Amino acid sequence: MTKFDVIVDNLMERFRTFNALDVGVFKTCILLLGIIIGMYSSQKIKKFAPYLWFMFALAYVYVAIKLIRAEVDDLDWD
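Above: the chain sequence. Below: its structure as C-alpha cells.
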C-alpha cells in the first residue's frame, strides 16, 4: 500500500466519525466552492464574492479541524 493510500484510508476513517451536522457543513463547503467558481462568469453577482469566500473559509476550517481532531483508535500511519 502506498503512502497516499494510507493517508486516504485514515481520512476516510476520520470522516466516518462525522455526525449529520458535520456532513452538512462539508457539503455546504463543497457547494460554496462550486458557486464561487461559477460566479466569476457573471458580472452581476461578482459583488457577493467576498461574502461567499468568507463562508467557504469558515466551513473549510470547521471541516479541517473536525478531520484533524477526530478520535479514531486504530489509525495506521505505518
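Helices lie at 3-15, 20-39, 49-69.
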